[in-house]
């Protein structure tokens, strides 16, 4: 189960097991007046074989920089860092989405760093799985096994689900074996939780516990509506707030992984924020939900589609959105080249535009010659600028003051929105330059010489 979660400053995910006494109740009759009582058993009999257990093992490598003052005692050839290796094991769940090809979907955090992945089928078979591809930002991974007589999950259009629809969670909590819980869809389009980089969650009160990650959230027809990914609880147990990645979003990511071996993100090319009450009043808008566009990048998909700064995007492909984070998640998981319809409000009038999403540039390392003082930093294009995804310890980038998670938004007085524009601007500038950085919602400058 995911150990990195931090939610609402109190929620953490653990693998602890707390068993509480179960009260004894009289058994319900099988029928009343000759009429059979409703039951989920027939649906589950068909559906549960498509949900599997995922057992992983591997070696966790941690590196710690050795200060120069201590290296002095070990001579000139002493290593710059200390490397520690620790074996680990983990348990999670997965869902068979294609029986013929043996494709299984799970969470990226379930298999991340694993050297060995074992799939446990409902009939008792255990089969080693191969990792086809994964996407850390959306927390999705695709596995493949070679086996006969597999059962795949049924699919449905998750854009049609509503708050209040019944939901059933299937997984392997605490390693106890396959478990089924039921509830309702509590909310849709949950984002801004800090669980993943791309968030557009289904919230449910169906009990989800440690080990359910990667399992199925289905409707009463046994159709997949989401992949369970996280819970909110200070002890790691169920408190009626769980989150699942919508199946439509999962399917789009899986198609990209199958075709390309990776996720190739679509990019709209806008910067913005959530539409709140104060912003709506300032612009005379009746709507209280949507994505407010602060800026449109030149020559982007949004620019080509005619989206303008000040527009409020309220729907994507006819599906209402609540926030800029939801817009970002839906666009980024559709894939480059996708044709998308956007409903928006401009000057009080509703309009519809169509855009063909651009492609996010490949992750590019500064060792390729962006700037000598950026060597050791890994740069990635983002909607708001250039994201620093990694900074090597002791590298020139680290000494310059860059940190993982920083966002480069400008150079001197020039706005920067891509690695390409950063390169071209640096080529024109001579001598000392100042990078404009967004860090933890604070603006700052780093001087490069």
Question: Care to describe what's here?
Answer:
The protein is 14% helix and 39% strand. The chain is mostly beta strands and 449 residues long. A seven-stranded antiparallel beta sheet has the order 7-6-3-4-5-9-8. Strands 25, 26, 27, 28, 29, 30 and 31 form a seven-stranded antiparallel beta sheet that branches. A six-stranded antiparallel barrel has the order 11-12-13-16-15-14. It is globular. Mean pLDDT is 80; it is low at 1-25 and 362-368.
For the largest beta-sheet, the strand count, sense and barrel status come to:
7 strands, antiparallel
Q: C-alpha Rg, in Å?
A: 24 Å
CATH architecture of the domain at 154-260: Beta Barrel
By DSSP, the count of extended strands is 31
Pairing-aware structural class of the strands and helices? mainly beta
How many individual helices?
9
Percent in strands: 35-45%
Q: The CATH topology of the domain at 154-260 is what?
A: Thrombin, subunit H
Briefly, what CATH class of the domain at 154-260? Mainly Beta
Which spans of ≥5 residues are poorly predicted at pLDDT below 50? 1-25, 362-368
Q: Report the end-to-end length measured between terminal Cα atoms.
A: 45 Å
Apparent shape: globular
* Mean pLDDT value: 80
Side by side, the strands of the main sheet go: 7-6-3-4-5-9-8
CATH H-tier superfamily of the domain at 154-260: Trypsin-like serine proteases
Tell me the helix content: 10-25%
């Amino acid at each position: 189960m995911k150990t990195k979660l931090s939610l609402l400053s109190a929620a953490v995910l653990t693998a602890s097991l707390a068993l509480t006494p179960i009260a004894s109740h009289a058994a319900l009759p099988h029928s009343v007046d000759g009429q059979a009582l409703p039951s989920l058993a027939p649906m589950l009999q068909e559906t549960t074989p498509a949900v599997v257990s995922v057992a992983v093992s591997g070696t966790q490598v941690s590196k710690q920089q050795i200060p120069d003052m201590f290296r002095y005692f070990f001579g000139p050839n002493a290593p710059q860092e200390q490397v520690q290796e620790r074996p680990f094991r983990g348990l999670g769940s997965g869902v068979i989405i294609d029986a013929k090809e043996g494709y299984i979907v799970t969470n990226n955090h379930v298999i991340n760093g694993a050297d060995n992945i074992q799939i446990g089928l409902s009939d008792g078979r255990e089969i080693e799985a191969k990792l086809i591809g994964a996407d850390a930002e959306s927390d999705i991974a695709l596995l493949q096994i070679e086996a006969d007589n597999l059962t795949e999950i049924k699919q449905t259009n998750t854009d049609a689900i509503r708050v209040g629809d019944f939901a059933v969670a299937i997984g392997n909590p605490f390693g106890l074996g396959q478990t089924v819980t039921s509830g309702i869809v509590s909310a849709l389009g949950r984002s801004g939780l800090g669980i993943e980089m791309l968030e557009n969650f289904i919230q449910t009160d169906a009990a989800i516990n440690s080990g359910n990650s990667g399992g199925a959230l289905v409707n009463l027809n046994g159709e997949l509506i989401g992949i369970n990914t996280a819970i909110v609880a200070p002890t790691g147990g169920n408190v009626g707030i769980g989150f699942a990645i919508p199946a439509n979003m999962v399917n789009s990511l899986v198609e990209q992984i199958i075709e390309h071996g990776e996720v190739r993100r679509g990019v709209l090319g806008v910067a913005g924020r959530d539409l709140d009450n104060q912003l709506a009043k300032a612009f005379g808008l009746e709507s209280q939900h949507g994505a407010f566009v602060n800026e449109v990048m030149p020559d982007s998909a949004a620019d080509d589609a005619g989206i303008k700064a000040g527009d409020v995007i309220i729907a994507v492909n006819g599906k209402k959105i609540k926030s800029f984070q939801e817009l970002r998640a839906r666009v980024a998981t559709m894939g480059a080249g996708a044709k998308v319809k956007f409903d928006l409000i401009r000057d009080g009038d509703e309009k519809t535009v169509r855009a063909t999403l651009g492609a996010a540039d490949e992750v590019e390392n500064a060792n390729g010659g962006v700037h000598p003082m950026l060597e050791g930093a890994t740069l990635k294009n983002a909607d708001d600028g250039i994201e620093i995804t990694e900074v090597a310890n002791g590298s020139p980038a680290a000494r310059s003051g860059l940190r993982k998670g920083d966002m480069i938004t400008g150079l001197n007085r020039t706005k920067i929105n891509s690695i390409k524009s950063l390169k071209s601007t640096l080529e024109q500038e001579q001598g000392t330059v100042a990078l404009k950085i967004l860090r933890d919602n604070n603006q700052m400058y780093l001087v490069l010489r």
